[in-house]
Amino acid sequence: MHIVSFDDWFKREANNENICFLCGNQLDDKNKSDEHIFPKWILKEFNLWNVPLTLLNKSRFNYRSAIVPCCKKCNNTSLSDIEKEIKSGIDGGFDYFVDRVSRESIYKWCQLIFYKILYKENFLKENIKLKESKKIISEEQFANLKLNHLFLRSIDKDVEFVDFLPGSIFICKVKTSDLDKSLNFDYMDAVPEQCLAIRINDIGIIAILADAGLQELVKTEDYSKYTSHILAPIQFKNLFANCVYQQMLFRDPFKYKIEFKSSDKLSIERVPKDNFEGNVYEQGNSTDHSQLLASIFNCDPNQFYMGEGLTGSFFFDDNGAWKDRAFEDDGTIKNSVEYRI
To answer: Residues 18-29, buried b or exposed e (16+ Cβ, 10 A)?
Structure first.
């Protein structure tokens, strides 16, 4: 077995608009194209062209301007193929999507969106008015995304994940608006934890991109008390917050071993880290969980903190029974308590 480094296999350069974000090949007038961070079919269906997208530094620009440099080959082949698969699944509705779209394809698509957003931000200044301003994403932060990029190359290369998926995927059925179709799309992410959520029509996707599938393994049964219901947007957001908090507690027990098969084929195996001790997930607490919920819902943490071991939520009513909320319900957490482990 020949173990190779990441840099032996792919090319990445921070702040270089003259290479393809995916394959790293040089771009010129003949082979250059623009790849939208969110595909055009989403922008068109939900009328997002002029809707502002908020960046890490809280600056904003329109979805229509959210593009990254890409070569025509990647754009018209591998990227087009995965977009067609995802679009076909979403057009078919929740049941069709769950039955017909593979979890690996869903993971790749989510990783693709997450990576493109951060790739875009490594070209942008924190303060566009200051010539000496730093980039929103530093070169060090960009370098830390090389594992994301390696996983992303499974879109255009033959990459085998040996008996694992790099991330966890949770799919929920969500409520939709009949009055305003543009409200049936939403995107959220938590960059340090590498988590994202996409709500699109009646399909809600939550992806944890770098946990080797462990949250899905550990929490699927627990989360079924939420995912077995049709979630209002505020409940879907609450579930995303819970997934992010779980990932904040994560201690990665794995490292990755790469076997080079050919110039276009490799396999990736997860193996235990040397001398890893303790639990994969640290013990959480209500204070930290409430603070995270408050940051996501933009409110006072005291609205969620119910005492040690107790955290408010938008899932249940005053008696602890499931709360069936309307699409437009902004929620109430008074006396809505659940035990957190």
So the answer is: ebbbbbbeebee
For residue 214, the surrounding DSSP H or E stretch is helix 214-227
Contact 327, 234 (CB under 8 A): no
Tens-digit pLDDT profile for residues 247-298: 999 999 999 998 888 777 889 999 999 999 999 999 999 999 999 999 999 8
Q: Element (H or E) spanning 254, and its range? A: strand 254-262
Residue whose pair of structure tokens reads 């699927």 in the numeric block: 220
Task: Please report, for the chain, the start and end positions of each structural domain, with discontinuous segments joined by +.
Answer: 1-158
DSSP category for residue 227 = H
pLDDT, tens digit (0-9, with 9 covering 90-100), for 190-238: 999 999 999 999 999 999 999 999 999 999 999 999 999 999 999 999 9
Are the CB atoms for 185 and 200 separated by under 8 Å? yes
Torsion (CA) 150, 169, 175, 59 in degrees, nearest 10: -40
